[in-house]
Amino acid sequence: MKYCNKPVVSLESATRHPLQSFADVITIAETTTKPKPKVVLTWAPHIKALPQAVPNSFAEWAIASGAEVVVTQPEVTNWTRISLTAHR
Questions:
Q1: On the chain, which terminus has fewer CB atoms closer than 10 Å, C or N?
Q2: Helix, strand, or coil (residue 56)
């Protein structure tokens, strides 16, 4: 920023994805009729460890916008079976 005279926008890092989250919050605001909408963030297991930038930013922006945020995951009893099945 020291040598740049133009605005700099962070597109994504290992922990944040601000523009994706901004778009998500705009979509929630445009489609809800409630002053404090309830938003559920959920995911299923993946065979590889993936960056958490999108869910981290989504939770931060949704909470900051006044939404009630619930984070959940499917109940899975055999993670190994899912990982092996997904890998084939």
A1: C
A2: helix
